[in-house]
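Hello forum,

I keep getting stuck at the same step: I have a sequence, I want structure tokens, and every attempt I make locally crashes halfway through. Rather than fight my setup again tonight, could one of you with a working pipeline run this one for me? It's a single chain of 153 residues.
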Amino acid sequence: MSSAKGRLAELGLALPPVPQPLAAYVPAVMVDDWIYTAGQLPLVDGELLAAGLVGEAVDVATATQCARQCALNGLAAIVSVADVLDRVRIVKVTGYVASAPGFDQQPTVLNGASELLGTVLMADGVHARSAVGVAALPLGAPVEVEIVARLVV
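Reply #2:
Ran it on my machine without issues. Output:
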């Protein structure tokens, strides 16, 4: 069976450097065997993949890719404190979608994050989730994702 990093490579992905915090917080904290990430934006090399409200300036497909990038950044944040990926169990994902008035496809957008986590971590990536529509996110990001995980033996 391949490792989580191997499955990332099969997708043509690698864990990115952990995005730098935008304010007074850290990307992730580990307490005992629990890991909590800060909200992760769809940043690649310090730049947003897209900006604006989903259902207005950003379409669902682009927002879904943004959610996927948020999850990838979240995995990088987890590894920054746990130093391991193959023993990580994703427990809960909370996703925020900057939504135009009337937009109601937040769960579809967040599938980008959930599907990446499931593909990379397999059964350990299956999780509970909330998908929340909000008026605005930092830097004008269309999506933000936070992850609660636990190290397993």
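The first strand starts at residue 28 and ends at 31. If your local run keeps crashing, start a new thread with the error log.
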